[in-house]
Amino acid sequence: MDNAILNQILNIAFEKKVSDIHFEVDNPPMFRARGHLIRAKLGSLTKQDTEFVAKAVMEQHNRKLPEDLKEFDTSYTLANVGRFRVSIFRQRGNLGVVMRVIPHQIGTFEQLNLPPSLGRIAQVPNGLILVTGPTGNGKSTTLASMMKYINDHFDYNIITIEDPIEFLFTSSTSCVIQREVGIDTDSFSVALRSVMRMNPDVIMVGEMRDLETIDACVKAAETGHLVLSTLHTHNTASTVNRIVGYFPPDAQENTRQRLAESLTAVISMRLIRGKSGETVLPVLEVMYATPTIKACIRDNKLDEIEQHIEKGRDEYGMQTMDQHLIQLCRDELITLDEAKRVSRSKDLERKLMFY
Predict the structure, then answer these.
(1) What's the pTM value of the predicted model, to 2 decimals?
(2) Cα distances (angstroms) measured from residue 118 to each of 65, 107, 192, 305, 315
(3) What does the pLDDT read at residue 206?
(4) Which of 77, 102, 127 delimits the end of a domain?
(5) 84-121 b/e (C-beta count within 10 Å ≥ 16 → b)
(6) Would you call the peptide bond into 66 cis, given omega within 30 degrees of 0 as the criterion?
(7) Which residues span the domain enclosing 64?
């Protein structure tokens, strides 16, 4: 492995529009495209090859590769090509690297096949907006699209706290300040404590990873700021449960009350293969916190939330994931088998007949 080969691999990733590149010992470089892993037509990587990739990434940040490195998240920029989010890790004693491709441009809702209701959600002046879903299913891209909308339409002071910085924003109507954990600040929680002295209107936190960060995000939303972040949960109910579960038992009832007041929206998503097999499409549950849903959160009646989302489609632009899957099936954009694979419902086919 040398710089020319590494750059060639990274260039191919952008040309072929893959989402991730894997560098692991005893395997050739592998690309993830449309949900599938594809082996590059190259030889298996050696220990020296993966160390070279890791060193190249670290050197771009003027850092040496520590001998005892276990895991490290950062970014990498290939001049005149694009940027990558990088995860360096150790497995069976060897270093591995996964690089997530960050698109050149931040897409609009329409370009990303996201529902226009996200624009309505992005217009709220304060509260907590969460984008949730499994790793690699479009959370960061969707969050960036919402930030772009806010940046283009409002004269806000926007501060992002990320690990690492992914999409680069240029101040438009708003002013955007981007801070990277490990470079510009020591941690999410430290940055959130100082952010209030920076006159923010909007705060974007890359991920709510721990109790201190979650508590700080909720407090910021409670004090009149708009806060956007992500969680690895699959729907609104599991999101509320996950947040409440971070708090000690004697604080959980109060946390439900706080969430009922501060939570504005939860956008839960998965990526699904299109009918042709050559594209991927986002499937979303969109929850807007109506008074009824706030009462469900407050009273811990989370199993009732989905039916209120379902009923709120016309008035509030909400939708359950099944409603979106059914719509994509009817528009012949996905197959029924693919919809059933993603749906958590056992009666999706029956719903398709009656909706």
Answers:
(1) 0.91
(2) 41, 13, 25, 19, 14
(3) 94
(4) 102
(5) bbbbbbeeeeebbbbbbbbbeebeebeebbbbebbbeb
(6) no
(7) 3-102
